[in-house]
Amino acid sequence: MSERKPYKTDLSDEQWALVEPVITAWKAAHPSVSGHQGRYAMREIVNALLYQGRSGCQWDLLPHDFPPPGAVKYYFYIWRDDGTDQTIHDLLRWQVREQMGRKADPSLVVLDTQSVHAAAGVPAGSTGRDAAKKVSGRKRGLAVDVLGLVIAVIAVIAVVVAAASAHDNAVGIALLDKVAADTDAVEKALVDQGFKDAVVAHGEKVGIAVEVVERNPAQSGFVPQAKRWVVERAFGIFVLSRRLVRDYEHRPCSSESRVYWAMSAVILRRLTGAAMPAWRTA
Hints:
- By secondary structure, this protein is of the alpha/beta class.
- 43% of the residues lie in helices and 12% in strands.
- It has helices at 13-29, 42-55, 69-82, 84-99, 168-182, 197-206, 229-239, 242-245, 252-272, and strands spanning 108-117, 128-130, 135-144, 160-163, 188-191, 209-212.
């Protein structure tokens, strides 16, 4: 079969070189009982996951020049469950921070939430309604560093997916617990006024000082707040990944995995100086 034409979401050779060692190590740790090395190239599996995340297509609508949907789905689920997707993301994030002259783990994080509509097939038991934003679906909680990078497993886990009806306090407390459980580097967290005293008090319990950044009452409309704006930018980046515009995943852990893959693609472009592929031309 002739080599397929590339998609804009495909990894370049330089980008694949940053991901390949993790995949190769994973393959070595999970040998086939029969000794078979696998029918499909791992690079094409990753390319298919990035394509799906960016385009938002269903499993069965993956282009035929990718490995079969069943194979791509198998690796998505197994890497989700054993944390390989998060490991890839973490290693890339650490490289960006070190490239910027920072320590691998941050001392300050920014917390925020985002409510997104759920697709028709998402189980009703894992969704709710955000009355304030008039959104029926799920609420994402996110913790990012001052560079706008998602803080993930091994260092600080950052993505929590909850029902949209969950109050910001509940999501904030869950985020703080995950941050404190996975690292002792984080000393301070910035939150907006949607988070209340309960989050501040819980931060004291886990050793993280929580500061509520209040808006200037004299300002109207959307005004970016110093340092806190980076988490808003992260949510904006998610919109570029159509699989994240709406929550299509039956299990919240799959929604989390989608965030890690989307952010890994962003970080790979930062590390290699590649441009973000656009939907529209000038």
